[in-house]
Amino acid sequence: MTLSNNSTMIKHSRGKHLSYEERVLIQIRRKDNRSMRSIARELGCSPQTISNEIKRGTVSLYHGIVRRYKAEVGQEAYQNNRKNSGRKLKYLELKRFIDYVTDHFYNYHWSLDACWGRATAEGLFSSKEVVCTRSLYNYVDRGLIGIRNADLPEKLKRNTKSQRVRQNKKKLGRSIEERPKKINQ
Fold first, then answer.
1. How far is the C-alpha of 86 from the C-alpha of 133, rounded, in Å?
2. Are 116 and 133 spatial neighbours (Cβ–Cβ below 8 Å)?
3. How far is residue 150 from each of residues 25, 113, 125, measured CA to CA in Å?
4. Which of helix, strand or coil describes residue 20?
5. How far is residue 47's CA from residue 37's CA, in Å, rounded to a whole number?
6. Same domain for 27 and 76?
7. Are residues 58 and 95 in the same domain?
8. How does residue 68 score in pLDDT terms, banded at 50, 70 and 90?
9. Can you give the residue range of the structural domain that contains 105?
């Protein structure tokens, strides 16, 4: 990949995060005193994206006299933000409830729905200690609790495959009247 002063081979995909190469290009263009709008046009992204990136990756040099954008700093800030992003699993806070569900599932042969229903109906746990049955099934899929999909007979019976649409439906016509004569015979 070569970066010249006037053109670039880097093209930003809309809806995607900036890559390290795009950050390097921003650094080069800022050093050449290019505006945020021209950099945004060149990369094919919003000027606000460039503005946010420059704020994120700007450092003070020479005892605070000079402020410059550095691609490495921007990339490091991006990676640190990604580590902290995403929803955290409540699983670790629910040990008592998960143990209750596992115990009643194996010892009393209750379904996950029945375990959840009994626990909420009788108020055995606070609302912060309980997750919905959908989350329980997700935990089973991820292998986070001692129950396996093989232990859920109803789940194994369900057909999860989507129904296929017939490929030749258009050829045959939508109704009997629209079908070619040789097919009706």
1. 21
2. yes
3. 52, 17, 28
4. helix
5. 5
6. yes
7. no
8. very high
9. 91-157
Residue 3 domain flag: no
pLDDT at 1 over 50: no
Please tell me the predicted confidence (pLDDT) of residue 110.
92
pLDDT at 2 exceeding the cut of 50: no
Secondary element (H or E) of residue 68: strand 66-69
The verdict on residue 162 lying in a domain is no
Q: Give residues with Cβ within 8 angstroms of 37, minimum separation 6.
A: 47
Say how many domains are in the chain. Answer: 2
Last residue of a domain, one of 64, 83, 102: 83
Q: What is the pLDDT of residues 20-51, one digit of tens each?
A: 999 999 999 999 999 999 999 999 999 999 99
For residue 30, give the amino acid letter. Answer: R
- DSSP 8-state class, residue 64: T
